[in-house]
Amino acid sequence: MADAPGKTRLRPRRGMYVLPSLFTAGNIAAGFYAIVQSVLATTSHDQTYFNRAALAILFAIPFDALDGRIARMTNTASDFGRELDSLADVITFGVAPSVLAYTWGTRLLPLIGNLKLRQSVLDGGVFVCFLFLICGACRLARFNVTVNPLPSNPGRPGRRYFVGMPIPAAAGVVASVVHCFSGSPVDNVYIALVWLALLLFIGFLMVSRWRFWSGKEIGLRSQHTMRLFVLIVLLCTLLVYFSNYMLIAVALAYMVSGMMARIIYAAQGKQRRRAVSPRTVQAVPGGTE
User: Which of 191, 206, 92, 228 is nearest to 139 (CA)?
Assistant: First the structure.
C-alpha cells in the first residue's frame, strides 16, 4: 500500500510472523519445564527441582515481554499471535506457579505435630492455589476483552499503566520467593499459612482495578537510551551474583508500588472531597451555632 507519493510500505514476509511465535513457544516450554520440575521435587525430595522450576518461570517473563514487542517492531502482530500468547500465559504464569506454590509451600510439610492442622493446610492449599490460577485467568480475559480499562486510581491514564497486577508479575512473586530460599520447601505449618495468605493477596491484586506500571513507554529510540543500557547492564550483573535477593526485591517492589499508588490516590481523593464539600452551618434563632 502507498503511504505517500513515491513511498510504498512493504508487507513483512510470511516467515517473519513465525518470529514472535517462537518467543511464545519458548514461554510455553519454560512453563511446561517448571511443572515437570515441581512434580519431580515431590517424588525425589530434592529441593534443586523447586529452584529450577522457579528459575524457569522467571526466565519466561522476558520471553513474554519480547514476543509482543517484536511483533509490533516487525509489523507482524496478528489475532493468532495474541490468542497464542494468552494461552501461553495461562500455562506458564497460571498453572506452573500454582503447581509450584502448592508443592513447595504445603505438599512437603513434615508428618509431625498437629496432623489435623497439617491436613487442613493441605486441603486449603489446593483451594488457594486454584484461586490464584482462576484469578490469573480472569485477569488475562479482562485484558483481552477490555478496550480502554480505567483503574480505580487512574492518575495519568494511558498505556503507562495496567489495570490490576499483570499475571507475569504475580507469577514472578511466587517464583522469586521460592528462588530466594534456593528451593528449600516450607517445613512449618504456620509459615505455610502465611504463604497461602500471600497467594490470596496476589490473586486479589490481579483481579483488582489498581494501577500498576506497564513500562511500555520505554523504547530503544528514547533519548535516554545510553542510561537505559547502563542500567540494564548493572541489573544483569547484580542478578548474576545476587539473584536470590535481587529477584525477590524487584518482584516485591513492583507489587508494593501498586499498593502505594492506591493508598496515595485514596488519600488525595479524601482531601479533594473535603476541599470541595461546602461546610453547612445551621443558624439557631437567638443562639449560636
Answer: 206
- Burial bucket for residue 57 (CB in 10 Å: 0-12, 13-18, 19+): buried
263, containing H or E segment:
helix 225-276
CA distance readout (Å), 41 to 35, 61, 180, 190: 10, 22, 17, 22
Q: Give dist(CA 40, CA 42) in Å, integer.
A: 5
> Which residue ranges in the chain fall short of pLDDT 70?
1-17, 147-159, 216-225, 277-289
Contact 214, 156 (CB under 8 A): no
CA 6 to chain centre: 46
Residue 3, SS3?
A: strand
CA distance 177 to 232: 22
Give the separation between CA 148 and CA 138, rounded to whole angstroms.
17
Q: Which residue's C-alpha cell is 499498593?
A: 259
pTM: 0.81
